[in-house]
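Researcher: Here's a chain I'd like modeled. Treat it as a single chain, no partners, no ligands.
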Amino acid sequence: MTATIMILLASVLLPTGGIRGSDPFMAAPQNFYGISGEAEDNGAVTSGDSIYFAVWTVCGPGGSANIVGRRFNTSGIALDDGTISIYQTTGGIDLLDIAYGDGIFLTVWQEKETNAFAHIYGKRVDTLGNVLDEEPIDFHEIEAPQRLPHLTSVEDEFFVVWQEHEDSLWRVKGVRVTPYGEILDEPPIEFYSLPGANGFRPDVAYGGGMFLAVWEVENPDGTLDLAGSRVAPDGEIIDPWGIEVSICEGFQYRPAIAYGDSLFFAVWIDTRNGRHDIYGARISPEGFVIDEGGIPLDTGDNLRSFLRVSSGDDRYLVLWQESDFDIAGKFVDREGNLLEDSLHISSSGYDFHPDLTWLDRYLIVYTHEGKLRPADHCEFKAVLGVFYEEGAHLPDLAFPLDARTYNQSHPTVVFDGYSYAVAWSSFIFGEDNPTIFLRRISPSGAFTDPYPYECRYTCGYRLNAPGLASTGSRYGIATCSWNPEDTLSRALFFNLVDPDQDYIREHPLSGQRPGRLRGDVAGRGAYYLYVWADKTWNLSIHGTLFDTLNNLLETRLYVTNVDSYPQPAVCAGDNGFLLVFRRNIEGVTNLQGKLLDPLGDTIHQGLIRITESDHNDHTPELSWGDGLYLVIYESNGDIYGVRVDTAGDVLDPDPIAICAEQGRQSLPGVDFDGVNFVVVWQDERNGNSDIYGAEVSPWGEVIDTFTVIATPDEEMEPDVACGPEGQFLVVWKGWTETPHDAFRIWGRFFPDVGVAEERT
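Model: Modeled as a single isolated chain. Structure tokens:
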């Protein structure tokens, strides 16, 4: 199984949705995240010295363009607070590429100048993110069009190739460049083409002690074949008459090349069968084409373009853009065998212009065009990134909310009308010092926060198990702290958090006292209602009302003599709130409730008897939708539901059996998607903890059941929030194997968005 991580590059690299396989990319996932209303494009990426470095263009007003970049470490964490500004121009920039060598990243690009000619330039950036060239490097100072640059590197030199228009023909040329920015070949090296024929679209790789360039060669009939030539590190052309990489009927075009494990691997688009298929061939460092005629990698009625390839540990990954503006990929082993694994990046928008690199896993970057959230008035064009990790057993179609290797637990999620917000406990500061983090992700799967946002508390004690609610862009987070020297005592806190403004307003609800138990929080209009329990005062449940400025308005006593662990839960409806809790009745713990008005006042003094089973009912959760509440809970190891209307009438005297599979089902979560309720729970039917779900109609019918995540590892503590147009996001705590060996918070969208690894 593989793993993936996605991210928005400008703020960090960002994922556009769920992933099948590894860790989501910085982004986020973290992301190259910089959505500012300006169009981003032309993403390119390389790696070296334990650093991933992604670059891309940002188009400004009046046709101006900037080249920016961001560095990430091997955990996918951004090393730069913002983006690195590499180059700014009033002209257009296109077709970036980047390589690493001897402590230097060299970026090259094609720039449209005022004379309407395109010209090739470059700039160097060191591993600390310092731009080393005030003015761009001009690789060939000539008044002639230059296009389509690519480059590679060996330890102490880069090799840049491009096509240049000279004497009415396009020629393929190249120069070696030192890490100090010195051009070693003046005039440039010129590669062979047929007399009177054009040469186009070069690419180049280094391996086996030499460079190998490949390019398109024009035939007299106008078709294209592929040629190649080796160049020694001292600049000597080893194959002055070229290597015939592919000579077939039709067109062979858009070549790309990589080196891995003693062999080059060239790939191209091929029309020999009347389609735009993808072929590849291995080439030895001695210049021998091992796969004469090529290996068919992807065939069928599809117009493929923007082909790229990179070498991983024991295989090559080939990426391309499909005609429906998705990104697809296939793996090829060192023997030239097409592997069963494949990769697919898809979203509701357009995804194109992929590039990739390998360090200890693949980092894939591409351009995404479309709305990042339904409320956006316009579509964005942003460069996104995805980490794709081979060999790690990570959840299918899932992505981590925080890729750092620390234990995390107790996730909870809400949808604020624009983004999903996820809060959880993290042990990043040590196993004895948990704290609360929050991160937002758009319905397209893009992280809107470059990093998980630390919800700072001043209590100085351990924090755990957050409750989360939203009334818009601000989030109410309820939690409790506990002193390791007095584990029976708790202090309750309510924080108002606005990550966009770096705004946190903390409100201690109580001092450190024995028996205080955190409960739940709900937001409605201009208020948050925080319900909590006190075991030392007649086993009572209380509610505290806060406004959106975090002013404490009032604390009320709702009920006494409840269960010793009452587990209060609260939800906002159209007419107020419904409070649900456990209460011991004649030795059996059932669920009871209380209707509250919009200010948290009790509407009826009497209690609603929600369940009357012979088993202990516990861990209630509830949601509002279609004019009623659905209360879900665990009873005797199964998941049940009961509907309650706004008058407090119980509509299901016989509870709805949502899941009664073998093994224990527990810890349910629920939300309403506009049509049905979505219920998720922790499920042990397979002998370990997995996450399953079901849809329940407002009429109490279980419509559909589904698997969220089922792996040999432990997945637990799920929650769910529903977003636009029937979409919902499930989050949970899941085990991640070596090298992480930690519980992380994971998420998966339904329907899936973003990257999916497909297996035949």
